[in-house]
Amino acid sequence: MGLINPDFQTLPELFTSVFTHYRGQESKFPIARKVNGVYEPISYREFEEDVHHFSAFLKNNGISPKDRVAILSENRPGWYLADMAILNIGAIDVPLYPSLPPNQIEYILNNCSAKAVVVSNMLQLGKIISIWQNLPELCLVIVMNRLEENVEDVIDLNQAKEEGKRVLEEKPWFLEAAPVEPDDVATIIYTSGTTGLPKGVMLTHRNLCENIKSCSSIIRLDESDCGLSFLPLSHAYERTGGYYLLFSCGASIYLAESIETISMNMAEARPTIIFTVPRLFDRIKMSIIKQISSQNAIKQKIFYWAVQTGEKYHRQLNEKGRVTALLSLQHTLAEKLVYEKIKHKFGGRLRYFVSGGAALPQKIGEFFQALEISILEGFGLTETSPVTHVNRPEKIKYGTVGPAVNNVTVKIAEDGEILLKGPNIMKGYWKDEEATREVIRDGWFCTGDIGEIDKDGYLKITDRKKHIIVTSGGKNIAPLPIENLISESPFVDQVIVIGEKRPFLIALIVPDFEKLMEYASSEGIQAATNKELIESKSVIQIYDKLMRTISRQLATHEKVRKFLLIDDAFTVENGHMTPTLKLKRKAITTKFAAEIDKVYNALNAVYNTE
């Protein structure tokens, strides 16, 4: 079926057409969330009423078209409700990551002059109250949870909906004619970036609507589909793919309880599509391998035979377009013995994983493909609403992000930078014309990514332009391919390669401590803490050996001469990761500056005597 209304021009138009389509169909629902340990659906009728009531409340409390209203919340039904209600009255929503500290929230709310903010709970309310005196424009705060005590100018969502309901009973015409045009700004999404202050990306209704339409023509969805949502809705990727796209096709969205419960929630929700990031696949692969390693030798043998059979099958299919009769037979057997059992862990109905937000290592993609699990890797930026490329279900090429979606034109600049044009390109950065001019030139959006297009039109990202390392010898090195090679080791959790204005490269590695502890206990290595573990000579030898192996695949100037083991993971909380899980290189190199200098000084002494 695809889109319920293929002609929508604005998001309120999309919402209205879907709600209208499902009037009277009580068995269909847009969202399900866990209540007392069981998934409970929220019907279209109930949800539409809530949206109207909340829209009326906001309008009645002075929120006018083009006013900014922030949403500071985890994924929950109230997030979708707030989004729809704000957009319905022509206001602009500003999503905020719930992990943000008060000072960053203050900067964003002041920068966009937010008039109101919808928060999820008392913890988020506490952050707003602590900075409210510095927010002259903020006059209204709504809490999704019940308010435990009265706070001036704060109301809970249930009270707000009740007030809106009363307004509509008295003035049924109150919500008519919200003037929303396709080129009006729908949302301002602040990208934290890996350096500097966040910039507000202005996305219009047209930007988002065109991107939803482009995606729907590639990933065919209908009301028999359902997704499992766990990526933050404050991120453009989950919002366009995991929310608007699913909603526009009548598919249901199940809300995962947390990252930790994903595997359990998959079995319960039995999703057909999941939008995710590459880190999840590392975790799933490790858990599969761990489970297999606890089984008897015969079962282990069968599993690895099935993986090899799957790899061979897809290699032949890609290269020749068909497979031999014998291989086809072996593949059918492997399906019965192994693939079906693994697919069952994901609920048994999964058609696709869609991967974005960071590069998917080719070997991970091929591992899942060998188990008959399709991962459609894509590419895009917040500034592009966000999807510009995605692998096609009928032809997946791991190591690439696929061809461009409909409406998007791509070209590669002379220096290798990927340039994009299309109706999905942002209006600009909020109150920052200079930054806008830097990235939109002659109608082309400059992505800051380096890439190449193959003969089939599939795009391969080779690095970030600003991550290119220029050594003191003047060599230009792309760190991403080197980091991907290092990451393939089961003993590596996170890695960044550095060497800017230095004579050679070194790597900062956060080990996979679970794997390392298993190794240590099997080898009789005594270590009470992570720090003690990474100081063990036997452990250091693992990474020495890894660097030597990797070096054989690299040019002389790309070799990683030394590494630094870090005993604590890079996270959003410690400021070493953006909320979209990208490593902040500058923050990491600043934090470990002394240790990095020490490694270089020791190496320089050796290097200079050679």
TrEMBL record:
Catalysed reactions, as listed in the record: a long-chain fatty acid + ATP + CoA = a long-chain fatty acyl-CoA + AMP + diphosphate
Keywords noted in UniProt: ATP-binding, Ligase, Nucleotide-binding
Cross-referenced Pfam families: AMP-binding (PF00501), AMP-binding_C_3 (PF23562)
GO MF term set: ATP binding; long-chain fatty acid-CoA ligase activity
InterPro entries per UniProt: AMP-bd_C_sf, AMP-binding, AMP-binding_CS, AMP-dep_synth/lig_dom, ANL_N_sf
Domain of life: Bacteria
SUPFAM superfamilies: Acetyl-CoA synthetase-like
Record domain AMP-dependent synthetase/ligase: where: 32-430
Record's protein name: AMP-dependent synthetase and ligase
Gene3D superfamilies found in the cross-reference section: 3.30.300.30, N-terminal domain of ligase-like
Listed PANTHER family: AMP-BINDING DOMAIN-CONTAINING PROTEIN-RELATED, LONG-CHAIN-FATTY-ACID--COA LIGASE
Signal sequence bounds: none
GO cellular component terms given for this protein: membrane
CDD domains in UniProt: VL_LC_FACS_like (cd05907)
